[in-house]
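Shipment paperwork, digital attachment
Item: protein structure file
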Amino acid sequence: MTPRTSIIGRIVHLRLFSRLFGRALVFAPIIGILLLLSAFPERYEATASMTPTDSAGMGLSGTVGQLGAIDNVFGNQAAVEVALRMAKSVYVRDLVINDTHLSDRMRGLDHLALERWLGRHVEVRSLRGSIIVVELQDHDPVLARDIVANYVRDTQQQLAVVARRQTAYKREVLRTLVFDATNELADAQDKYDNYRLAHHYADPRTSMASIGDRIPTLEATIKARQVALSTARQAYTDDNIIVKQQMAELAALQGQLAAAKATTSQDDQSVGTAVGNSRELFLLERNLNVARVLYDNYMRYLQGTAVEDLTSTVSMRVIEQAYIDTRRQYYMPTLAGALAFFLLWMAIEFYRLRPPIGDPLEGRAHP
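Attachment content:
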């Protein structure tokens, strides 16, 4: 049974490839032309690189944080993916076409064809270290550099637009929160002031503390009056005007001390009144402090949105501006074609040197 002939075997048995001269006459010109086309016309590679950044990379993290701004609206993990998606978007391609006047510089192509051309020829890829590279090979070095430079600039601008759009949304939310916090702060302050007016406290905490400090003062004064009264009784009788006056003063002080120590709320200067009012005062102060903290924080974040607008354009930092690579560029498709034809030629020669069993070339001299 004759084995099935392979594709290489069929090519080998063509009359054109029966002699070495014929094979060289076919493959050598094709390989030479493809090699020539891979080098000429000369191609130039325009390259630019950029990387996502934030305020921390610029030494602004402290200032931005104090003003209530967020370093990066995209988040550190997604910054590269967002930038790649933005650079490859149709809208960025439209901006590049308009900014470089590509329709005038590449006559014969409509807008859709120019977008497809940019999508095929402009390569946007990421490297290690969160570096994004934009590359383009073209016969015109000026055009290639302009396109790459506009790709980088338009990507930066569109990322800034997205950041400002998100900041605007956050600003509207913060304005609502600030408005609500302002009303809550005003209501809490009004209740606190009404409490002060109702209890005749200019400073409630100081006034309550003075009530507690009044008792030791009265006790010390009473002891001093008791000593003075005892001394006076050694010199005078109880009917003496001096002794009567000191006894009256002592009784009045003891009445004040009893009223101050009273646990009921009959006297405004008593311990009972101070204790009873302290719970209400604590609740009012707590509500007032919470409302003030919320208002201050929301206002600080609202002010921070202005800083985010100012720093929105630094979401992408350009490492290398667009430049033309000095290395000689080769057109890889034609170079790969030349290699493919060379390997085919070598496969034919190897087949002729070692034909399979049963092939008509077996046992013959193969020029």
